[in-house]
Amino acid sequence: MSPKLNHTIVAARDRKASALFLSEILGLEIPRVFGPFVLVKVGDELTLDFIETQDQIKPQHYAFLVSETEFEQIFARLQARQLPYWADPYRSKRDQINHWDDGRGVYFEDPNGHLLEILTRSYGSAGTAAENPHPLVEEKLQRTTAEETRADERTTAPDLAPTCGEDFR
């Protein structure tokens, strides 16, 4: 069995209100209280576990891959609540939907400032053949052994010796 993400903890000012917001917007099951957490089931096995905090909340980003039909339903709920939305994670393209990888995507905030996203195609999935490729066309990293990495670092390390008679002591 390969590892699967089972749950993650989401900081909130009001755990119940935050969990209800997410479940209502996305059209998910009613959240469950589990000790200090309120769990929102996303997919078959993943839960977002909301916990209350009075500390400063560092906003996180949560992206949800949805079907075209689900996108329409979720987007209608966003509009019904008159929530602001953007086509980009920098929030510079307000009231717009992106069409990256020939799908659709939109960003919006939850009550705690977490940036939520719904998208109909995984970013990068259409590559450069898409009519609307993702602006961050992916680069695939190559695995190397520890020995290859050390050897590469030795051969590519810049020469830091003083030049032109400069002495950096």
Key structural traits:
single chain; 169 residues; alpha/beta; four-stranded mixed beta sheet; three-stranded mixed beta sheet; 3 helices
Report strand order across the widest sheet.
1-4-3-2
Strand count: 7
As a percent range, the share of strand residues is 15-25%
Largest β-sheet summary? 4 strands, mixed
- Total of helices: 3
Query: What series of H and E elements makes up the topology?
Result: EHEEEEHEEH
What integer value in Å does the Rg equal?
A: 22 Å
Summed over residues and divided by their number, the pLDDT gives a mean of: 87
Class by helix and strand content?
A: alpha/beta
pLDDT < 50 stretches: 157-169
Specify the overall morphology.
globular
Helix content: 10-25%
Cα distance, first to last residue? Answer: 55 Å
Describe this structure in words.
By secondary structure, this protein is of the alpha/beta class. Helix content is 21%, strand content 22%. It has 3 helices and 7 strands. The strands form 2 sheets. The protein has a 4-stranded mixed beta sheet, with helices on one face. A 3-stranded mixed beta sheet has the order 5-7-6, with helices on one face. The protein starts with 6 loop residues before the first strand and ends in a 13-residue tail after the last helix.
